[in-house]
Amino acid sequence: MSYPYADDENVNIPAAVPVPKVDEYADKFFIDLFAQVLRKEYSDAIESILLHRDESRNFALQVMYTDISEEKFILFRMLPHYPLKLLPLFDIAAKEVALEIYNTHPLKESMIIKEHMRVRLNEVPKCYTIQRLPKSEDAGLLVVLRATVVRAGNSFTFVIYVQ
């Protein structure tokens, strides 16, 4: 298995473990795995989003890529190779966990289910960060572009999916 962006010798990728085929698993399998990670690590963040009064806004649930690797190694291995399949399932899992929190929370009356809540990955490993324009061989892979917004002066990470 080759990693097109693993040029850095300091990147430790366990290449001995093959990447499973995404079609070997049902969508519900991935939704359940994602939901387990979100329940354990991001319940407070989801609760905060639900307590926000403005339901028309877009809400980004910031998920650290390393939390996925620590909890569910199969997701860590498959996500860079099948982002178009798995990232929408991550959003579904977030909505399921949000609904669970909403239904069991003592402040349920103060909460609003958010239709526009999306998972955003942070701290994607350096091996998936490219230092060039995306090419055709990047199609279907998770590609991270790091850029600076000149007006704000801050560095942002944009996770894009090359189709």
From TrEMBL:
Database matches in Pfam families: MCM9_N
Highest taxon of source: Eukaryota
Annotated ranges, domain MCM9 N-terminal: 30-125
InterPro entries: MCM9_N, NA-bd_OB-fold
Gene3D superfamilies: mini-chromosome maintenance (MCM) complex, chain A, domain 1
Ranges in coiled-coil conformation: none
Name of the protein in its database record: MCM9 N-terminal domain-containing protein
